[in-house]
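hiii, so i know i said id send this last week but things got crazy w the move. better late than never?? heres the sequnce for the chain we talked about at the cafe, plus the structure i predicted for it. fair warning i was half asleep when i ran it
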Amino acid sequence: MTKNSPSKAQITRAEKLRETINYHRYLYHVEDRQEISEAALDSLKDELKKLELEFPSLVTPDSPTQRVAGQVLDKFEKVTHKVSQWSFDDAFDRDDLEQFETRAKNYLKKQGKEEQSFEYMVEQKIDGLKIILEYVGGVLTTAATRGDGKVGENVTVNARTIKTIPLRLNQPVNGIFEGEIFMPKSSFETLNKKRKKAGEEEFANPRNAAAGTMRQLDSSIVESRNLACFVYDIAELVGEDFTTQEEELHLLEELGFYVNKERKRCANLDEVWEYYKQEEGKKESFNHWIDGMVIKINDRETQEMLGYTGKAPRFAVALKFPAEQTTTVVRDITLQVGRTGVITPVAELDAVAVAGTTVRRATLHNAEEIERLDVRIGDTVIIEKAGDIIPKVVSTMTELRPKSAKKYVFPDKVSGCGGDGSIEKIPGQVAYRCVDLSSGDVARRKLHYFVSKKAFDIDGLGPRIIDQLIDEGLVSEPADIFKLTRDDVLPLEGFKEKSADNLIDGVKERRSISLPRFIIGLSIDEVGEETALLLAQEFMSLKSIRDATVDELVAIEGIGGIMAESIVGWFDDEINQVVVKNLLEHVTVEDFAVQNPQDLPLAGKTVVVTGTLESMSRDEAKEHIRRLGGKVGSSVSAKTDILLAGTKAGSKLQKAKELGVKVWNEKEFNTLL
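okay and structure toks below
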């Protein structure tokens, strides 16, 4: 032992101190109870801190002294999620809830499953910021925000300051866990009092406060604001099996996570609705904000069978509490020109707080809605905001109408349109649109949408840069993006050599694009993500879509007459034909391949993925399995057909061998692909 090395007694003392402090942290912050006073706990922390200062080798990643890192970051690094992050579809009433159940049952019927009743797990929907936590050997290694579901930001330094996030779990597991960071109401009130006293702008609600706090580059600020975190889901866990959502929550508690106690297993939708109404009545009594309840089918095997749509799980839905409403005054009505030239009237309002946010504008949808509401400039109106959707005007309080109130009349011309700005009513619809779509406003919005996540998803190319490229005369149509060079981009404000190279590389990566994304990027009126996928599935090639007739389109379930005419009209337009022709000189559109499900190599097979894969993430492997006709299982059982085992496969590999389940390595799986 050297002079600066701790003795065995000191090593043991440090271990005991860490263990004891973590135990009392859990009691205080998770169990909400105490066995020793805060002063006594502080003295233990102080003793450990002094030991570690004297002997730095005693510092471990899970030490309570490491909760405050003290460092100030320059920026947050990007993190690619190993497991894709989804959001929930929303429901707002009993009918929506029943439709959710019906959709799930119908989907299972299509998979050949017999009619069955569902048991549900109902949990509070915390109004906060989603966090993804990764543990290796039971120790926290990474904490990341959700971001766009694929890529988030590394906020590990900040997450370590949150006392309800364990730095070490009760078991040495490898896993990825999902939770919600929130600011308790008590902390929120204290924070706003301090900000008001300091002459700073107060936060509108705890959710904004939590999100703003986690974006701080100085972790000491995060630590001072007393955030908390409920963990509610296991995205990935090596070597653990559970058969229900309820068992999953119990396992999270056993591991040492702070799990919300307000939850209930319900035998049917009647019980779900009863519990939902009960929680709605109690929502103000909790020390955290909730904006609804999350309803999940309890059985994990059923969850796996239902899987996901393009954006949300089929086995779960967020049942929101009724929208908040408030009154305000309409000061003006303005017109907003969209990317397809459709004109939306917007009410400009006196600023008012609703659903925890400050609202200054609300949509009026169209001219017919203005007539129906009889809303006039100067009127007092009731607005509402349901969930995160755009605020809307729901009624006009005509009894409060001043004599000076002005009835709104749609103009003949709008400055955001092309040509002389003329507008016209869309045949068969209540909306207006620009007669000439050549205006700069429309062109900008089309290009913004073209590079967006839903369409071409060009890395590093967002609205701000598109605007610079337009203003510099470098881009006027989508094809121009693919003509850009490093020398074009480098002189732009904010660009250096590396960022310019990254942008050009991002453009190159999108020279081959899937058929649905290509269609989305064209900004065809009435055509969104779902319709683009329908078109790709039905016609399988761009040429077939371009040649399709109105009758052929209307024959597709989900495409109506107006939409069909819009699609045919778009491709018949000479200007649009030039746009597509120019794009195809630089971009290859991949045909959409559809096979008979029974002919797919994994048709009818249940495949479980375990361990670490080198050539892909486990989430990507699961997507491949589903694409090849297989069903992804969560645990190994007699019903499992194949176990795809990467390195460090653990107990699932052992169980597969015991049951005689076929085991594939990554090389075999890649051969199949």
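btw The domain at 598-672 is CATH 3.40.50.10190 (Rossmann fold). thought thatd interest u
miss u guys!!
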